Structure formats: C-alpha cells, structure tokens
C-alpha cells in the first residue's frame, strides 16, 4: 500500500488480505493466524474485516465501549461458526411463494458454558444467535499454594450430558483452566466430541495441549497468535480480556 | 417532428474513465430519456395554464414544469437600476441565459440531477439558493422564448406555440405582474409598448415556424390538448417498451456464462441452510422469521464489508507488543432500496450503529412492469465515501437493482465502490447487473430461481 509509512513489526505470518477479485497489490498486508497442524481446530476465515476487528480490540488505546462492541462482533462470528458443527437432518419446506426449499434442521440440544469471568463476556454473543439458550458457569482460579488451577464453583444444566456444549473463554493461552473445565464437563457425562471450545485468540501451545488431551474436541478460534511469553501471556495478544471488558 | 429516437443514448459525460460506455453493456435508465416539451408564446398567451393542464391531463408521476423565468440573466448594477425603472428589456432573448438553460437541459437529458437558478423579480437578481431537480419522465419547458434557441430545440421532443389575442395577453399580463411580481399598472403598460410588443413581432412570433403544434385559445382548445397528451402518452409507452427490451437483451448468456468473480454468494454452511429453512418456511412464526432474518443479515453484511477498503495499521497491545493489523479506510455508508432493503437495517445497526444511510424508493409500474424512481435521499458527499452498501432484500429481474446502481453512479459514486447486498437473487438478475456494471460487487445470501416475486419484505414487515 502506498500510504503505508509505519514499520511492519515481526509478529507471525503476513499476507495480503481481501477479496479474490482484487490483485495482490490492491490488498493490504496484515499478520494472519499462525498455521497449525491439528484438524480439530477451526480458524475463522482471515478476512480483512475480521483482521480489522481484531486490530481494534488488540489496540491498547481502544476504549471499553469500542472494545465491547467489536469483540461482540467477533464473538457472534465465532458462535455462528461453532453452530455449523452441530448435527443436522434434511428438511424440506414450502416458501411463501410456493417454491420448495430443500433445507435442513438442527438436531440435538445445546447449552453454553462460560469459564468465569472472561467467558461470561461471550454470553451476549451466544444469546444474539440462540435466544433463551441455557448457560452454565464454571469458576476456576489459580490456587495460591500450588499455583495450579483449581475449581471453585460450577453451575451446569442438569441434563448437560444430553446436550452439545459451547465452552466459552475468549483467551486460550496454555489452556490450563479450559482443560480443567473440559474435565468437569466430562465428569458430568458430556462426551468430548460434543464439546466445542470457542475463543477469540488462541496460542499454538494451548492448541497443542488440547489436541493431545482431547483429540475429539473441536476448537473454534478467530486467530491463532504467535506464542506465549515467559508469564504465559499470549503474544501479541490483547491484554486481560476480562479486565478490558468489565472493569478497565 | 423530433421523436427523440434520433438522440444518441445518453450517458453522463464522465469525470473518470471508470464507467465508460465502451466497457460495459449498455443500459440507459428510463429517466435518462426524458421527454422535453417546449411551450412558447407571447406573454400572457396562457403558456403556464396550458402546461398545468397538460400535466393534469397526463396524470403521471414525475412530470416537471420548468419556467424559463428562472433563467433570466443576473443583472449588473446598471441594468438593475433600469429594471427598477421598468426600462430594462426583459422580453428580449438577450435577457435569458440560454447557456445555463442548455446546460441544465443537457444534464436532465443525461439522467443527471441539475440545479435550476432561482430568479427574484422583486430584486431583479438570482437568489443564492438554487433548486435541485432530478430527471423526470416528462419535462415541460415554458417561456416566451422556449422555441428560440436552436440548441434547446434540438433537445425537444415536442414544440408547442400558444397563440392568443393581443388584448387578452395585455390584460393577463397586467393582472399577473401586479399581483405576483410587485409591479404597478403604469409600469406594466410602459413595458408593454416599449418592449413587449416590438419583441413579440421580432422574436416571439417567428417561433411559430419551428413549432410542431400551434394552439390557439389555450386550454379552451380541447382538441389540441388531447392531441398533445395522446402524443406524449404514446411516446412514453414506446420508451417503456424500449427500456424493457433493453433489460431483456442484457439477459443473453446468463445460463452459459459463469457469474462474475465479483459476485459473492454466502457460503451455504449447515448453519446458514438451517436459518434459511426457518426463514423460507411459510409456517414460521413472525417472531422467528424476524429473529433469523436479522441474524442472517448480520452474516451477509459482514461478508459485504470484506469488500470495503482497508489499510494497514500497526497497533500496540496492552503488553506492549506490536500487531500488524488493518483498519477501515474512509467512510462506509449504506443506501436502502425501499421497501425491501429496510429489512437489513436492524442487522446493519448491529454492525455499524452509526452508518450513514440513504434511501431510494423504486417501485415497479403496475401497468408496464418498468421500475420507477419515486423518492431519493442520499447522504451528502456520498461520492466521497469509500464504500457504499446498496441494500435490497431480493433481486429478481434486476430492474430495480440496475436503477438503484445507476442512481448512485449518477451521483458520482464510482462503480467499484458499490457493494450491492441482497438476501436472494436469480441468475438472470445478477447477470444483468454485472453485465452493465462489471465493477460493482454483488453479495448474495443465496441464489434462487429466476423471477421470484418479493415476499421477504412482506414477511418481515408483516404487511
């Protein structure tokens, strides 16, 4: 791009993004999601619009109102993608103009489970797509003595074993608490293959940890970042999602 | 008589080479083919009355009467003083700014909007504000010298000359000037003998020679009136037939050629098909219909926005890392094609809450099936916006989509900045639109059989 004056930082793979009918030179260059080799991970298409939304919420100067608005837009896209993996049956209907439409209908019941507190920020996006959806909650905190994640609280639908679960947590770093959350779900009778883990930004390490432990569980993410720093924060990441959404 | 057929198809003279006629299939919107009717005659001969009578008799939307009085030249201080002393010759062709008139008429013939000056008889000057008008179906130009300038005559489809007895003319003129134009009787009579009468003999009367019809006794002349209106009606019908034939000819190749690469159809994922099943099912409740339509329209608009303009933008995250991202470039605005496009507004507000939104009302004429532009309100400087989303719920024949895009192009929006968004479309419509406007991006929720009647807006608005 001719008006590009800023220095391009080295933060993962870059490519020209934009619709196919534009030539490479017409498309701006941006960092895109890091390639990963596991096929149980679904990354949203790296469209310019998605990159722009992520840019907005990564920017430390974005205020809370914008942070909430733009992260909600991404969350809705994540939920829409997640719902694609539910089981279906064919269903033909008649349209108001008398044409038949060979469509399909979703089978099976769903519920959301948010990992508190940041995961709760994704509930609105889920409700935007699925009205009156049941939403359970799990609170996992780091134990002061062992510095390992510890389950503090959970409240889940009673029939969760019969449901598909959309597990919600926006930042997928090492996956420590998510692994614990999945263990909780499994202990309640939810099979791995009926869990969809929805997050905005994932790290390759977290994805690897998950793929090894839960090979049948599907991860839906908007973007796989480059890696983790020594404190296990995602690089480049976006800071503490819960703080930016709720309190900052 | 000039039938209007001889005029070359009108395409606005372009500022940039983007949408030259050579590059695209030809489509001339119906309003780019305005019929101009000139009504000339002596002052007080009943031109205005006749014009209004024609309008009433035609009983059509989109008929404009343009008075040549608007085109009096602005007066310099010297002439202005004369004018206030009733010594300025307003009844000579020199008093009229024919250049301005010709340029306005040419704009209208080209289907473009134009600005009509406002002339104040009280001040003998042009007012600051001008009147903006869009090209109508029929334009009646009335004025003493409506048939004077050969350039104007060339643009006309029909030329009428009104004839009236001189005494009648003088008395009508006195009444009008005193009542409407703030003059006194003495001044009027002075003007009559100094200017009006000699000018009549020198300039007005000779226009008879170029007239197609000479109408004596004004509106009392019913035979002449019905001749005029019948002629106009026939001409409009011919135009409408031509327009529909032109639309038809754009269909060629729709079933053999692949769709343009600028046609983007929403990926038919299980989720999307599931939503479509609910939306298309006649038995779905209204609550569900609106909920799922709004949800789907968000996805459609997100897809549309990928065709907006972006630029590179490096940001710093709270931990101090740099991220090379993108940010939207320029303004994204929307134009809703009423009524169908309004079904997208809830979705649009979820994605761009403060999106500037223009509106056009295009309706198909019940008799001819030809789309007609009834209402237009666009954001200011829409020509400077980097992306304009043009929203309509359905596209069947593509007639109203073509018309809506043409309206934007006429308002200076380059084709490649327009993203047409629709819930469903048929191949014929999409093919027509992209043939005529190859650089317009078309975003479609799903492809359906051709020529489907509009039902989405009925379901959404429940009437």
Automatic annotation (TrEMBL), chain A:
Q: Which residues form the Phosphoribosyltransferase domain?
A: 45-246
Gene3D superfamilies linked to this entry: 3.40.50.2020
Q: Where is the composition biased (Basic and acidic residues)?
A: 1-10
Region (Disordered) residue ranges read 1-25
Pfam families per UniProt:
UPRTase
Task: Please identify the protein, giving its name as recorded.
Answer: Phosphoribosyltransferase domain-containing protein
Automatic annotation (TrEMBL), chain B:
InterPro entries, per database record: AAA+_ATPase, P-loop_NTPase, PRK/URK, PRTase-like, PRTase_dom, Uridine_kinase-like
Q: In which pathway does it act?
A: Pyrimidine metabolism; CTP biosynthesis via salvage pathway; CTP from cytidine: step 1/3; Pyrimidine metabolism; UMP biosynthesis via salvage pathway; UMP from uridine: step 1/1
UniProt-listed CDD domains: PRTases_typeI, UMPK
| This enzyme's EC code(s) | 2.7.1.48
Domain AAA+ ATPase as annotated: residue spans: 33-180
Report the catalytic activity: uridine + ATP = UMP + ADP + H(+); cytidine + ATP = CMP + ADP + H(+)
Report the Pfam families cross-referenced here. PRK, UPRTase
The protein's superkingdom reads Eukaryota
Matching entries from NCBIfam families are given as: PRK05480.1, udk
**Family per similarity comment:** Belongs to the uridine kinase family.
| UniProt name for this protein | Uridine kinase
> What keywords would UniProt list here?
ATP-binding, Kinase, Nucleotide-binding, Transferase
Q: Which PANTHER family match?
A: URIDINE KINASE
């Amino acid at each position: 791009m001719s008006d590009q004056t800023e220095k391009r930082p080295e933060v993962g793979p870059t490519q020209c993004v934009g619709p196919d009918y534009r030539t490479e030179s017409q498309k701006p260059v941006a960092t895109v999601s890091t390639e990963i080799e596991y096929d149980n991970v679904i990354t949203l298409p790296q469209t310019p619009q998605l990159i722009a939304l992520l840019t907005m919420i990564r920017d430390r100067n974005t205020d809370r109102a914008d942070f909430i608005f733009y992260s909600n837009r991404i969350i809705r896209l994540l939920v829409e993608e997640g719902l694609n993996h539910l089981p279906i049956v064919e269903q033909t209907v008649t349209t108001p103009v008398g044409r038949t439409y060979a469509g399909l209908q979703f089978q099976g019941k769903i519920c959301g489970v948010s990992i508190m507190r940041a995961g709760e920020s994704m509930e609105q996006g889920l409700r935007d797509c699925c009205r009156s959806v049941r939403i359970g909650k799990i609170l996992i905190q780091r134990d002061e003595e062992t510095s390992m994640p510890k389950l503090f609280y959970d409240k889940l639908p009673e029939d969760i074993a019969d449901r598909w679960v959309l597990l919600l947590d926006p930042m997928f770093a090492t996956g420590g608490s998510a692994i614990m959350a999945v263990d909780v779900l499994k202990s309640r009778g939810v099979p791995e293959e009926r869990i969809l883990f929805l997050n905005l930004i994932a790290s390759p390490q977290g994805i690897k940890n998950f793929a090894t432990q839960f090979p049948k569980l599907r991860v839906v993410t908007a973007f796989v970042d480059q890696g983790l720093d020594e404190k296990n924060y995602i690089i480049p990441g976006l800071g503490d999602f819960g703080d930016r959404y709720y309190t900052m | 008589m000039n039938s209007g057929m001889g005029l070359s198809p009108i395409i606005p003279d372009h500022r940039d080479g983007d949408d030259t006629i050579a590059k695209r299939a030809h489509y001339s919107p119906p309003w780019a083919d305005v019929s101009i009717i000139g009504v000339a005659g002596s002052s007080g001969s009943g031109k205005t009355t006749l014009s209004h009578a024609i309008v009433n008799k035609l009983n059509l939307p989109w008929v404009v009467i343009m008075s040549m009085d608007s085109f009096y030249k602005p007066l310099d201080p010297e002439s202005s003083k004369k004018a206030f002393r009733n010594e300025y010759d307003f009844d000579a062709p020199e008093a009229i700014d024919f250049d301005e008139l010709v340029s306005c008429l040419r704009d209208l013939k080209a289907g473009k909007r134009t600005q009509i000056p406002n002339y104040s008889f009280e001040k003998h000057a042009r007012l600051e504000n001008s009147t903006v008008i869009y090209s109508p179906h029929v334009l009646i130009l009335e004025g003493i010298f409506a048939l004077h300038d050969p350039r104007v005559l060339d643009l006309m489809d029909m030329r009428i000359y009104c004839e009236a007895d001189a005494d009648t003319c003088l008395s009508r003129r006195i009444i009008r000037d005193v009542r409407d134009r703030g003059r006194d009787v003495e001044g009027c009579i002075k003007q009559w003998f100094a200017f009006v009468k000699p000018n009549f003999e020198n300039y007005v009367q000779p226009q008879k020679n170029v007239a197609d019809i000479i109408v004596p006794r004004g509106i009392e002349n019913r035979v002449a009136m019905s001749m005029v209106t019948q002629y106009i009606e026939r001409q409009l019908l011919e135009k409408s037939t031509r327009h529909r034939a032109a639309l038809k000819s754009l269909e060629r190749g729709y079933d053999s050629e692949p769709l343009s690469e600028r046609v983007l159809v929403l990926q038919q994922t299980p989720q999307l098909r599931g939503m479509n099943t609910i939306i298309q099912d006649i038995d779905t409740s209204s609550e569900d219909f609106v909920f799922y339509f709004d949800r789907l329209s968000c996805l459609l608009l997100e897809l549309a926005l990928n065709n907006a303009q972006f630029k590179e933008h490096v940001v710093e995250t709270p931990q101090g890392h740099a991220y090379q991202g993108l940010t939207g470039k320029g303004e994204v605005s929307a134009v809703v094609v009423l009524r169908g496009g309004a079904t997208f507004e809830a979705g649009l507000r979820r994605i761009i809450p403060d999106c500037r939104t223009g509106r056009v009302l295009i309706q198909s004429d019940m008799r001819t099936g030809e789309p007609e532009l009834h209402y237009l309100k666009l954001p200011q400087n829409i020509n400077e916006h980097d992306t304009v989303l043009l929203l309509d719920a359905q596209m069947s024949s593509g007639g109203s989509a073509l018309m809506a895009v043409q309206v934007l192009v006429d308002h200076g929006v380059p084709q490649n900045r327009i993203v047409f968004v629709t819930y469903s479309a048929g191949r014929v419509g999409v093919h027509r639109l992209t043939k005529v406007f190859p650089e317009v991006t078309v975003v479609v929720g799903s492809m359906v059989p051709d020529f489907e009647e509009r039902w989405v807006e009925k379901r959404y608005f429940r009437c």
